[in-house]
Amino acid sequence: MLTSDHVELLLTIVDTGSFSAAARALGRTPSAVSMMIGNIEAELGLTLFDRSKRDPAPTTAMLALLPDARLIMDRLHTLRSHVHDLSDGVEDKLSLGLAADVNSEPIMRALVDVARRYPALEIHIVTAPQDAIVAALHHGAVDFCVAYGGLDLDTQESIHALWTENVLAVAAPGHMLSTENAKLQPIERLMAHRQIVVASPGTPLADIRPVIGSRTWKTDSLATAISLVKAGHGWANFPESMIGDLVAEGELVPLRFTNITNGLMLPVYLRQLKHVAPGKAAQMLIAGLRSAHGKIEAPG
């Protein structure tokens, strides 16, 4: 019966090119390696290495087994790493909440090192509107979340500033507000037009600063909100870093006002509960997110 030691030996011989080199790599004697290979071949009823030359060459049978052997060793390395991590106090699952209208690129970058360091770690990313994702944090549905820092901060939370986002009021090129840009309007003019808001329908907003319109359509998806605005159904406040390309291509138009500059600067925070101690993987991810501190620039 093949064991993990047997598979490791076979792969080491193939990779190093000789029994003696494999013996050195594995801390064994060449005679012991040769004897082990003989026993493996006898048990399998296969010749795995051609010994007619100075350095043994893999036979057709060995080459046929090679893909499965490498897959087994890869899985075994992952298993060993997972066992080590669990015994070292690393959590087996990590749940990260993300506000739907927050730029996710820094999170994706921070996850690269975490995934590389803990390949067996199961990661859940939950995306929802601001209020819903903060509620998920307090209900224990996510371990921590990346969301805007608003007027709804709770004394139970521990926060870390990540970056600052510029939220712009935009509309479609053919929208009345866009065509009025030539003569400019006070920002109060927005109240007369429908606003598209990324929020959970039917749930009151904890932070109403970005909401100006007296009539609103709500959607829990940023992509849907952008589509609604592009189709001319209303105007919206969107993060500049996430719509820069659409503005550059003329699909969305930043509005201009006579009495205020377009743009609301909102801090993006890492938010976690004070009484919940993060595990090692969470700590690494948090450190990666905090290293992204600074304003996220708009594309283009």
How would you describe the overall organization of this protein?
With 300 residues, the protein is α/β, with parallel strands linked by helices. Helix content is 40%, strand content 21%. It has helices at residues 4-16, 19-26, 30-44, 60-87, 105-117, 130-138, 176-179, 222-230, 240-248, 280-290, and strands at 49-50, 57-58, 93-99, 122-128, 144-148, 157-171, 195-198, 216-219, 235-239, 253-254, 264-273. Helix 1 crosses helix 2 and helix 5 (105-117) runs antiparallel to helix 10. The model is unreliable at 294-300 (pLDDT under 50).
* Morphology: elongated
Number of helices: 10
Order of secondary-structure elements:
HHHEEHEHEHEEHEEHEHEEH
Average pLDDT score: 86
Amino-to-carboxy terminus distance = 60 Å
Q: Find the structural class using helix and strand composition.
A: alpha/beta
Low-confidence stretches: 294-300
Q: How many beta-strand segments?
A: 11
Main β-sheet, in a few words?
9 strands, mixed
Q: What percentage of amino acids are in beta strands? A: 15-25%
Radius of gyration: 29 Å
Secondary structure: helix percent: 25-40%
